[in-house]
Amino acid sequence: MRNLTIHSLWLMVALLQQAHGQITNVYTGTAPNTGTGDPLRTAFQKLNTNDVVLWQGLTGLSNFLATPSAVRNALAIGGVAGTGNKFLRDDWQWVTTTFPTLGWFDVKSYGAVGDGVTDDTDAIQDAIDATAAAGGGIIWFPPGTYILRTNRYNWRNANGTPTALVITNRQNIVLMGAGKDVSRLRISSSMTRAVVPQGLIVCEIVGCSNVAFIDLTFDGNRQARGITQPWSAYNEDDGFSVENAEQLLVLNVKSMNTGNDAFDVDGAFRASFYNCDVINAGEAGFGVATVTNLIMVNCVAQDCGWLVGSNNVDNAGFAFDFGKFATIVGCIGISNWANLLLLSQNYTRVSDSVFLDQGNGTTNIWIVGGSRTMLQNCWVDTLAATPLANHVGVYAGPKRFWSGPTDFGPPSEVMLEDCYIRGQYAVWCNQANGVTARGLFLTATEGINIYSSTNVVIRDCVTTAGSVGVRVVSGRGISIAGNDFRPQAVNGAVIVNASTEAVSITGNRSWSTNWSFRLLGGPQYVTLAHNLAYGAVDWGAHRSLCADNILYGGIRFVGGVISNAFVRNVIGGSGIWYDAGSSTPNLANQTWLANTATNLWMPAVTNGLVPVPDTYGPWIGLQTNAPPAAPSSPGMAALWNSNGVVYLLTTVPGGATWAATNKLAP
User: Fold this and answer.
1) Own/partner pairs for 12-21, CB < 8 Å, 24+ apart?
2) Is 564 inside a domain boundary?
3) Which of 265, 293, 325 is the C-terminal boundary of a domain?
4) Which of 6, 313, 395, 660 has a CB 3.0–4.6 Å from the CB of 627, allowing a cystine?
5) CA angle 59, 64, 68 (to 5 degrees)
């Protein structure tokens, strides 16, 4: 442990990056002394562009620079005898760095006790100051609980909040413990709200570079301090706070029991979190703002955001604000007020993560402002058996936070892919542009709601909504294709309302027992094509096309529809019927399926149309009774019933038989 150097710290980072596919190979060791020849080819054979080489004691620098470009194109870090450490970048140029072999600073050597009782603030600050004076080093926390109070320097951040420990404008600082839950930094129970009315930060890092936190626990101890009520705006009772840092690594660290953020990072370049935990933060678990190049892997946030309340921007397990180029992988949010907030984030990918909230009428995931966000392979669910009213799984749209005078604007270019999402409303798009929902499994009262949004694609999704699969209240440029709407959507697999235009509904299957596709109030330029619908269709669209559909439930025309075209549809159920004031479109060249049902709205076919045998089959027949009786003539269509039983109907010349043993469950 005492021989840990910046070489081995870089090795740790490189191995982590290799594990997540950012680096192809990592080579380590002592490079040979070189008189002539190619030292890297001798030691490591051929290198690739994405390889990393870490070595010590290399001589013969000129020989290295003479190596082929394929080798020089690799990233390499190492020590060159007599010249200090060197760092080779992708531009193939050597630049001098300040990375020394890090010194070792044991906090107990400076008087810290770690017994959970003694005030260790000054002793630890002495170790920090000594490390800073040496140009960097490793501050070692042996196993124990280190009690902290306000810092002797009376240092405060820009919002006036004091801190227990502070490191400013330094480089190459590592705070390292013996393990998560083994080495603890805990705020004293004497630091009550009366003593520190604006809160107390466990550790503040300002203006530093090459900073690492490893194997530690930060404990705000807020319950013992009596902090049970919300703080006013801009108080910061945080676990650790980082401002304006470069090259931040947080590895195997826990932060817990804080009045505000557990991890608070404002203004950083290249920040990485691996295997970190948050429990019981009053505001954000991971509060990360204005960070460029963020990696977060295998982190957990639980029970965060409840102390601050619903209208604060950071009351989420994971809150990322105003940053860009972020990758979040394999993280878990549990029972937070909101689990994930992306506020004005750009180029953000969240994947392979789980977000479980309490279904308490809030929103699980917020995507507000920003652009180019991807949520991929995630499980978005609630711990409640039934989500409460107004609970939303994923929201993409504008939002007003801090009771401010204006909203943060809506997002653009949002991709939701291959996720399971449950809530009263699974997905809610409000004023968003360029949203793609692909491969989602949605369990909700309503699957996807679209308000005033443009260029939305919903494709290859499965909905088990209890009311509506997709509801388009208003918008333009909406594509709904290749989806499977299960029979729970009793009010409509897809509902398109007025103030909507340019909608394509193609290649979907609707198992709805009541309504399948409902175009209400006069939406324009709608294409309904190549769909299979077992429920009825409500047609109130203008200047629209209905072509090549199989519509077993028939069509109702509502609202005086005009300028529509109906081409090559198979129409069954009750055929067609009209509400008062509706006009008759041209219904030539349709195929009509007769049936003997008597419990529908009108007789089988109206307006003088004559039923003909089904010429589209063989197909799946749907029968109201089980087992079904044979149809009265070849190809007669039966109806989907509320019992949810499907039988395979085979049609042969001169007769029909029901294969009652071939049940299909929707």
Assistant:
1) 12/251, 13/249, 13/272, 14/52, 14/54, 16/251, 16/272, 16/274, 16/297, 17/52, 18/52, 20/295, 20/297, 20/329
2) no
3) 325
4) 660
5) 165
Residues 256 and 220 sit within 8 Å (Cβ to Cβ): yes
Joined together, the tokens standing for residue 581 give 């004031």
Alpha-carbon torsion (588, 591, 596, 597), positive or negative: negative
Q: Which residues contact 21 (CB under 8 A, 6 or more apart)?
A: none
Q: Are 123 and 107 in contact (CB under 8 A)?
A: yes
SS (H, E, C) 130-178: HHHHCCCEEEEECCEEEEECCCCCCCECCCCCEEEEEEECCEEEEEEEC
Query: What separation in angstroms does the CA of 443 have from each of 331, 414, 440, 449, 532?
Result: 22, 20, 10, 13, 21
What does the DSSP 8-state code read for residue 198?
A: T
Q: What is the pLDDT of residue 488?
A: 63
Instruction: Say if 21 falls within a structural domain.
Output: yes
Cis peptide before 627 (omega within 30 of 0): yes
Rounded CA-CA distance 630/658 in Å is 6
Spell out a b/e string for 602-625, using b for 16 or more CB atoms within 10 Å of the CB, else e.
eebbeeeeebebbeebebbbbbbe
Which residue in this structure is represented by tokens 């596919």?
21
Is residue 352 within 8 A of residue 325, CB to CB? The reply is no
Please list the ranges in the chain whose pLDDT falls under 50. Answer: 1-100, 233, 595-666
Domain that holds residue 88: 6-96
Encoded amino acid at 249, one letter: L
CATH number at residue 252: 2.160.20.10
- Mean pLDDT, all residues of the chain: 75
Instruction: List Cα–Cα distances, 407 to 310, 313, 332, 402, 429, in angstroms.
Output: 15, 12, 28, 10, 15
Q: Are residues 311 and 278 in the same domain?
A: yes
Asked which of 69, 96, 123 is the last residue of a domain, the reply is 96
Contact 524, 541 (CB under 8 A): yes
Do 267 and 123 lie in a common domain? yes
Task: Check residue 534 and give its pLDDT.
Answer: 85
Three-state DSSP class for residue 80: strand
Residue identified by tokens 């102390």 is: 307
Residue 580 lies in a domain: no
Which two three-digit tokens encode residue 208? 């530093």
Cβ–Cβ under 8 Å, residues 401 and 369: no
Determine the pLDDT at residue 361: 59
pLDDT tens, position by position, 321-333: 999 999 999 999 9
Nearest to 258 by CA among 304, 205, 326, 295: 304
Residues 200 and 280 in one domain: yes
Same domain, 146 and 56: no
Of 598, 588, 550, 603, the C-alpha closest to 572 is 550
- Give the max Cα distance, the chain: 100
User: In Å, what is the CA distance from 448 to each residue of 32, 109, 361, 391, 519?
Assistant: 62, 60, 17, 13, 16
Which pLDDT value is given to residue 360? Answer: 65
Domain count for the chain, please give it. Answer: 2
Residue 75: the pLDDT is 35
- At 381, phi and psi to the nearest 5? -145, 175
b vs e for 134-146, b when ≥16 Cβ sit within 10 Å of the residue's Cβ? eebbbbbbeebbb
Same domain, 134 and 78: no
pLDDT at 487: 73
